[in-house]
């Protein structure tokens, strides 16, 4: 099932490419409206999800890199042990691995994660995110859906 790692690589390439484009095309903290509920808005996140630990003294960078690497290693091991018929889980794990490593690369190269996708409605803003975050979310959703609704290898 390690054949799914091509998807992880694709997520990393797309994630890093879109972040590079966002940094070159956008101004920090200056949203560009695309839709009434969706902006492109360049922000730098030194923390984790929802800016958790973003105001720490810098040690969080290395903690989050270590967590991403450890989780990716565990997920690669899980991926390696999957039955070939578990295609949905294979794709989901590959998405999560790619997302985790995409954000880890940001932390290693920049010291923060580059976010630029901004959903909002009626003055309420979801925290800005990126392609890596989206891949992690989609992967986790697939794993949960398979666990709740999958019925044997044929459904996978």
Helix content: 55-70%
Radius of gyration: 17 Å
The H/E string reads HEEHHEEHH
Q: What is the typical, i.e. mean, pLDDT?
A: 91
Shape: globular
Distance between the termini: 13 Å
Q: Can you list the strand order of the major beta sheet?
A: 1-2-3-4
What fraction strand? Answer: 5-15%
| Count, helices | 5
Task: Tell how many strands the DSSP assignment holds.
Answer: 4
Domains, number = 1
Structural class: alpha+beta
Low-confidence parts:
none
Let me know the largest β-sheet: 4 strands, antiparallel
Give the topology, please.
Elements: H1 5-25, E1 32-35, E2 38-45, H2 59-81, H3 87-110, E3 113-121, E4 124-125, H4 131-149, H5 152-155
Antiparallel strand pairs: 1-2, 2-3, 3-4
Helix pairs in contact: 1-3, 2-3, 3-4
Describe this structure in words.
The protein is an alpha+beta fold and 156 residues long. It is 58% helix and 15% strand. It has helices at 5-25, 59-81, 87-110, 131-149, 152-155; strands spanning 32-35, 38-45, 113-121, 124-125. Strands 1-2-3-4 form a 4-stranded antiparallel beta sheet. Strand 3 (113-121) and strand 4 form a beta hairpin. The longest helix has 24 residues, at 87-110. The model has no long low-confidence stretch (mean pLDDT 91).
């Amino acid at each position: 099932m390690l054949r799914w790692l091509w998807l992880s690589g694709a997520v990393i390439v797309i994630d890093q490419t879109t972040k590079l484009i966002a940094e070159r095309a956008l101004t920090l903290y200056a949203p560009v409206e695309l839709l009434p509920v969706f902006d492109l808005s360049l922000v730098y996140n030194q923390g984790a999800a929802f800016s958790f630990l973003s105001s720490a003294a810098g040690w969080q960078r290395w903690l989050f890199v270590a967590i991403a690497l450890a989780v990716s290693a565990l997920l690669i091991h899980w991926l390696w042990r999957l039955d070939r018929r578990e295609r949905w889980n294979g794709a989901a794990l590959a998405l999560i691995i790619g997302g985790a490593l995409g954000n880890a690369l940001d932390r290693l190269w920049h010291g923060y994660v580059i976010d630029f996708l901004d959903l909002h409605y009626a003055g309420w803003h979801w925290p800005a995110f990126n392609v890596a975050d989206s891949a992690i979310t989609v992967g986790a959703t697939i794993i949960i859906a398979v666990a709740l609704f999958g019925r044997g290898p044929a459904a996978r």
